[in-house]
Amino acid sequence: MTPLQSLENRLAQRRRDALYRERLCLEGAQGREVQVAGQTLLAFCSNDYLGLAADPRLQQALAEGARRYGIGAGASHLVSGHSRAHRELEEALADFTGRPRALLFSTGYMANLAVISTLAGRHQHVFQDRLNHASLLDGATLSRARLRRYPHRDLAALERMLTAVAEPAAGTLIASDGVFSMDGDRAPVAGLAKLARAHQCWLLLDEAHAFGVVGAGGRGVFSAVGRLPAEELIQVGTLGKAFGGFGAFVAGEDALIETLVQEARSYIYTTALPAAVAHALTVATGIVRSEEWRRERLVALVARFRAGAAQLGLPLPASDTPIQPLVVGGSQRALALAAALRDRGILITAIRPPTVPAGGARLRVTFSASHRDADVDRLLAALEAVW
Questions:
Q1: Contact criterion met (CB below 8 Å) for 129 and 204
Q2: Is 194 a catalytic residue?
Q3: pTM value surpassing 0.70
Q4: Which of 67, 108, 188, 381 is the most exposed place for a label (fewest CB within 10 A)?
Q5: CATH code at 18-50+292-386
Q6: Does 317 sit behind a cis peptide bond, omega within 30 degrees of 0 on the bond before it?
Q7: Whole-number Cα distances in Å, 304 to 108, 237, 368, 378
Q8: Cβ(250)–Cβ(236) under 8 Å?
Q9: In the prediction, which pLDDT does 232 show?
Q10: What is the C-alpha to C-alpha distance for residues 119 and 99, in angstroms, rounded to an integer?
Q11: How confident is the model at residue 168, as a pLDDT?
């Protein structure tokens, strides 16, 4: 068998297992409605939680940034790619999170790789929730530290595992999603912070699906549980979801951020985020902070959907976030339901393994502040028809 034939066989097997993925091609901007292959679809599968991805103010800011800074950064941050726009955005994000400093990355994936591979090494342990995002797991693998995964949100199990490490090394780290991207539930942050302090560990909180959405002013899960010791806390947030743009950041203590600047490979050896994007995201940060009605709207939409789903007997997990998954089990059924909804003008993608555990295929319903009450009612009617 040739190498190419081996790949063709792998792809064929994915099709047989209903795990083959295909890209949708949108013909316009993100929004409550999208255009796909000439069809207008009501979309419930974007992470544009606050409805900012096509906001005219951000479009104008991006155009202004392009006129001022050009299109490309031209180099890495440590060569000549770091501009005033990057500095201003980092300062705005540090102020937004209430942390001493923030550091920009091109993606949340790169940010998580940077933090874990920089802080943890061969003689350290990395403790992770079993349902963490792939970037956190890959960061631990890259670091060559010992990865230990605890059952989902199980603080007692985590404490037993931490206690078993008699003298944790300085780079020992606990990592968790803030809001879990496929289930929509929150990490037990207060308990995680308490364990991190008791065992002298770092706590890395990936707030990708929480920043802008959860907590006072949208500052994330950590801010939602009140005042907690924050010195050991490392927060990672993305700017391509609630913030409507692109990129990510790490927020934390000055020594942490400076260590990442000096040592993090996924920061040092890559071209900087375009300055025009950074300029637009500074505007987005101000909008996220000031327009509380967007978060209030999300709360109302989620409550309306959950009430309607309960009346229909639809199985929803305990989630108060814009992520409301309907777990269906088999991949074939998830695909069939997604196709039936699309026939009714509603776009929800089927999420299948390995993104979720085997037997956990689902329709991942997500809401945006741009949705209307009538949109929720239309979704519920369609789900009643196809379920």
A1: no
A2: no
A3: yes
A4: 67
A5: 3.90.1150.10
A6: no
A7: 31, 28, 13, 12
A8: yes
A9: 84
A10: 19
A11: 61
The full length of the chain comes to 387
- Out of 46, 106, 181, 331, pick the active-site residue: 181
Q: Where are the domains of the chain?
A: 18-50+292-386, 56-290
Q: Is there a contact between 244 and 59 (Cβ–Cβ < 8 Å)?
A: no
Tokens representing 85 are 């726009």
Of the residues 133, 199, 241, 279, which is catalytic? 241
Q: Which residue ranges of the chain lie beneath pLDDT 50?
A: none
Strand extents, DSSP E, 1-84: 33-36, 39-43
Catalytic residue among 209, 331, 370, 371: 209
Q: Is 223 a catalytic residue?
A: no
Do residues 280 and 65 make contact, with C-beta atoms less than 8 angstroms apart?
yes
Residue 209 among the catalytic residues = yes
* Class of the domain covering 56-290: alpha beta
Beta bridge partners of 40: 35
- 281, 104 contact by CB (below 8 A): no
What is the Cα gyration radius of the chain?
A: 21
* Cα separation of the two ends of the chain: 43
C-alpha 58/C-alpha 50 separation (Å) is 13
Eight-state DSSP code of residue 349: P
Please give the C-alpha separations between residue 122 and each of 117, 119, 172, 205, 230, in angstroms, as whole numbers: 10, 11, 11, 22, 26
What residues are paired with 177 via a beta bridge? 206
Fill in the DSSP letter of residue 336. Answer: H
What's the DSSP call for residue 172?
-
- What would the DSSP string read from start to end of 316-329? --S--SSEEEEEEE
Q: Can you spell out the DSSP letters for 60-102?
A: HHHHHHHHHH-S---SBIIIII--HHHHHHHHHHHHHHT-SEE
Three-state secondary structure call for residue 139: helix
Quick: pLDDT tens for 320-374: 999 999 999 999 999 999 999 999 999 999 999 999 999 999 999 999 999 999 9
Q: How far apart are CA 242 and CA 215, in angstroms?
A: 13
The pLDDT mean for the chain works out to 94
Cα separation of 249 and 94, whole Å?
10
What pLDDT, on a 0 to 100 scale, did the predictor assign at position 165? 82
